[in-house]
Amino acid sequence: RVHAAERPAAEPGQAPPPGAQPPGSPYPCSLCGEAFEEHGELQLHRQGHGGGERPHACGDCGKRFRQKVNLAVHQRTHTGERPFRCAECGKGF
């Protein structure tokens, strides 16, 4: 097993990557066609098509985000925090 960043590119005929939606997902986006299994996932996705409002600002660099969770992930770039560990080698990510 290898880390995701070390994985080779997908070969033709391989299974789709994790997170890829299966054909016929019941909630398609009317703007771009991407489909989702859950209605809530579609709603979050649609926010990305929104009018550009980004209410959550990083206190360190000023970069702004539409969703608070994305700001929290971004803030780790400033703190160096790596909250997850590989079960096999202990490498943080």
Automatic annotation (TrEMBL):
List, for all copies, the residue spans of the domain called C2H2-type: 27-55, 56-83
Name the Pfam families for this protein.
Answer: zf-C2H2
Biased composition regions of type Pro residues, renumbered to the chain: 14-26
Q: Which InterPro entries match?
A: Znf_C2H2_sf (IPR036236), Znf_C2H2_type (IPR013087)
Task: Quote the SUPFAM superfamilies the UniProt record gives.
Answer: beta-beta-alpha zinc fingers
- Subcellular localization(s) per the UniProt record: Nucleus
Stretches of the chain forming a coiled coil according to its record: none
Among its keywords, does the record have Nucleus? yes
The terms describing its cellular component in GO are: nucleus
Kindly report the protein's main subcellular placement as a broad class.
nucleus
Give the PANTHER family listed for this entry.
Answer: FI01424P (PTHR23226:SF416), ZINC FINGER AND SCAN DOMAIN-CONTAINING (PTHR23226)
By what name is this protein known?
A: ZN721 protein
Species whose genome carries this gene:
Trogon melanurus (Black-tailed trogon)
Biological classification of the source: Eukaryota, Metazoa, Chordata, Craniata, Vertebrata
